[in-house]
Here is the input.
Amino acid sequence: MITLSNIKKTYNKGAVQALNDISFSVEKGELFGLIGPDGAGKTSLFRILTTLLLPDAGQASVDGYDVIKDYRHIRNRVGYMPGRFSLYQDLTVEENLNFFATVFDTTIKENYDLIKDIYQQIEPFKDRRAGKLSGGMKQKLALSCALIHKPSVLFLDEPTTGVDVVSRKEFWAMLKKLKQEGITILVSTPYMDEANLCDRIALVQKGDILSIDKPAAIVSSFPGELYAVRAAGTHRLLQDVRNYQGTSTCFAFGDALHVTFKNAGSQPLLEYLHTKGHADATIEKIQPTIEDCFIHLLK
Amino acid sequence: MRTLFFLLEKEFRQIMRNKGIVRLLIIAPVIQLILLPLAADYSVKNISIAVVDNDHSTASQRLIGKITSSGYFKLTGYTGSYTAALSMVEQEKADLALQIPAHFEKDLVRENSQKLYVAINAIEGTKANLGGAYLSSIITDFNDQLRVDWHTTGTATTSDAPQITVAASNWYNPYMDFHLYIVPAILVTLVTTLAAMQTAFNIVQEKESGTIEQINVTPLKKHIFIIGKLVPFLVLGIILFTLGLLVGWLFYGIVPVGSFWVLYISLVDYLFAMLGLGLLLATYSTTQMQAMSLSFFFINIFNMMSGAFTAVDSMPGWARAIVQTFPPSHFIRIMRMVVLKGSGLSDILYDLGAMALIGLVLNGWAILNYRKTA
Here is the structure.
C-alpha cells in the first residue's frame, strides 16, 4: 500500500540530513506508527508521501502510484492531517467540511457514513468558527476534513500532540474503527504509550530507522533482563548505580531507575546500595516497554 | 467550474467576515481620498513676509498694499532694519524679507529705474520657489501700473517702446484647479495599495496558517486556486474605484469628461498588472511581515515616481525609462487624460498595451515561481 525504498532527503544543500536511506512498506489496512522524538524526520517523510516535498533520491509509492510521477492520483486518494491545525479558522465547522468536500468534488452527504461517529461529536458546534474550537474538537474536525473524500490512505502527523488524555484515548479508538473500514493509516507520535496501539511501528531517530516490527516483538527482542530500582534520593541513587561496576545501563524513568546488568543478578547491587547508605532501596524485575527498547536502541 | 465558484464564495465570506479588513479596504481609502487632496495642494497661500521699508514713501506704501492684498502674503513684520527682518526669517516668523531701499520713490522718478532686494528662506523649497515667483509677478505688475500712470499723466516719454504681452490659457483645466489634477492620481495610488498589498497578504496568510499545505494535497488545480485568489480583489478594486469616483464628484465636483467604459476597461487592465505583482510578492514571502516590507518598497517607489505628485518628464532619462515599467505611471496618465480631457480608447492604446504587457510578465513570473516553491 505504501512502499519506500532508499528515500533520502537533506535540507540546506546537504547540511541537514533529514532522511537517511529510509526503506519500509505498509500493508493495506494496517495501522502503522512512526515513533520518534522531534526532529527525527517524521514530518519530512509525511511530506514526501503526500507529494508536498520531493525526495533527493529513492522511490516511494502510495496505493500503487509513484509520489513524483503520479502525484495527481495520490492527491485524489489520500487524506492528510498535518501536525499543526491547518483549517480555515475564520470559517465555521460546517463551512470547512463543506469546502474540503467540494475541493475533492464530493459532498458531505455522500460520505457521511464514514465520518458520522467523529463528526456527530462536533456537530452541535457546526456554526462555530473553527478557530474558536477546543484542541480536541479541532482535531476531530481536522480528521473529518481529511476523511470527507473517503481516502484509501490516511496520513496523520502527530495528531495527538497537545491534546488531553481523554481525547487522545477517543482518537485512537476512532483510528481502530477506520482501520476496520479498510483504510491504511500511517500515524506518527512522540508518545511511546501510543506505540502499543499500532499494528506495527518503526522507531525513527535522526533520519534513520532503528527497528521495525510489531510492538510486542520489539519488546520481546529486548536483550537481557530489566530491573526497576527505587529508593529515596533518586539523584544520589542514579550516581551510585551508575558507578557500580556490574551495571550495564541505567536510566531514570519517573520515580524509578531502569537498570540492566552485565552479569545477571540483582542481589549484589542491593547489597552494594545498602553499604552506600540507601537503606530503603528495592529492586524488582520488570517487563521492558517500548520506551526501554527505544533507549536501548539509541545507545 | 463548480469548484471555482465555491472557492470564490469562500474567499468573499472570509473577507466579509474580517471586519477590520472591510474597514481597511473601503472606509480608509475613502477618508484618504477626502483628506489627501486638501493637503496635496500646490498653490501656496499664507506666505509670511517681512518688509524692510527704508523709504516710507507713497510708492513703497502702494507696493506693500499691493503685495498684501494679493491674498498670498501675510505681512508679519514691518521694520526699518534689514538685520531685524533677517532675524525674523531665522526665527521662522517670516518666509520672505523684502527690502525697499531709501529714496525708492525719488530715484524711481528721477533715474527711471530702481532695485528691490528679496531674501527667501529656501528650507521649504516649494513655498520659497512659489513665494519668490508670486512676489516677482506682483512687482512686475506694480511696475507696469507705474508706467501706465506716468504715461497717461505725460510725465514720461520712454514708455512708448513696443511691448510683447503673452496671454496663456489653460486647456482642459482652465482655472488650474489643482484637485482636478491630484484627485485621479490619489485614487490610483489607493487602488494600487489595495490590489498589490492585500492580494499578497491574503495569499501569504494561507502560507502562515498552513492552509495552503492542506490545499496542496487536494486535487485542486493551481490555476483555479490562483484565479480564486485574484478575482475577489479585482472586484474589491472595482468597488473602491467606483467609490473613489463618487467621492471625487461629491467633494470636489469632478465628473470625468471621457467615457466611463474607457475608465473601467483601463482599470481592469491595471488591476490585472497589479494583482500579478501582489501574487509575485506572495510567492517570494513566507510571512506577512516579509510581504508587507516588500510591498511597501514597491508602493513607495510607485507613489513617488509614477507622476502622481511630481512630473515624470522632469526626471533624468534613465529614471523615465524605469518609470515606463511601473503600471501606475500608465494608469495615472490614462486617468488624467480621460477624466480631464475626455480621451478615448485610441488615445491611450500605448498605455493600455504597456500595462497588459507588464501584467502578463508579472503574472507569468508569479505562476512559474509558485510552481517551483509549492
